[in-house]
Amino acid sequence: MSDTQEQRNDGRRTVVRTVALTAATLALLGGVAGCAESKATPMDDQYAGNSGETEKSQEEQSQSGDSSGSGDSGSSDSGSSSDAKDTGNYKDGTYSINGQYGPVGEDSIDVHFTIKDQNVQTVEVIGHPFTSISKKHQTDFANAINGVVDGKPLKGLKVDKVAGASWTSDAFNKALDLCREQASVQQ
Question: FMN-binding domain: which residues (predicted)?
């Protein structure tokens, strides 16, 4: 065998080892972190969901125990902690939330909800995928979600798997919980 052929074979072995190691690492991460829950956090930008409230009223909310938690409740139970704060009466406005998901939280979506008259008027979803597979799921989800939630009452709204994107749908549901919490008018 010539030196060139031997170098080519060594290069192929190195590539095969690298691919095998990468696959093993991903399998391990998926097995260890596959139970990771999606989470949602308020975004701090012009859409930030305070609907024109003053800093003083926001301070009053935080002093009265109103928190914008990261959705620690179980992923299939959409309302255990938020139902206590959910009056079913919501302020009109735009609320922006970032939802993270995936085995190690590598994917995220920005969700901009426009609430009017207690209903979801429109939703805009902007994906931040980690892989090409995530990009496809996020794009399909973003293209389908308006037909699922636009015009629906915000109270109790939850989506099932939309456009085949189960993890994106879970992150969206966490964002819905946080939107209800932020928009809720305490009685």
Answer: 108-177
